[in-house]
Amino acid sequence: MTATAKTKALRPGFQPGQSGNPKGKPKGTRNKATTLALAVLEKDVEAIAKVVTAAAKGGDLQAARLVLERLVPPMRERPVNVDLPPMDTIAGINAAQQAILDAVGRGDLLPGEGISLSGIVEQRRKAIETQELEQRIAALEGKTK
What we know:
The chain has helices at about 5-10, 30-55, 60-70, 90-105, 110-145. The protein has about 140 residues and is mainly α.
């Protein structure tokens, strides 16, 4: 008996290449094990949190790390406030880059924040450069016609 014949004998309504559940698992449906684990934890979560917090207060570094990682997640970004000059000219963009560099040097901005902000200013510089090149090309094409 061939493999295809065995498959047809075991699952008579099965067609090769055709899903038995074309819609698939609905979005948001949780795994049964996950649902069960959450149900068990839900009953005792307050007691578990108290035990872990007490252990952290008692000097258990692993418990302290767990509390800090789970209850106080690391901050990804923070709003920054830096006065930048108008960036509608190349001179303005140079002044903005200098203002960012100065703010990082003073400690008003973290180096990573300075890099991100400089990237935004660089995108503005490229936009101005592209606009100026477009105007120059249009002027040159106008002269040749």
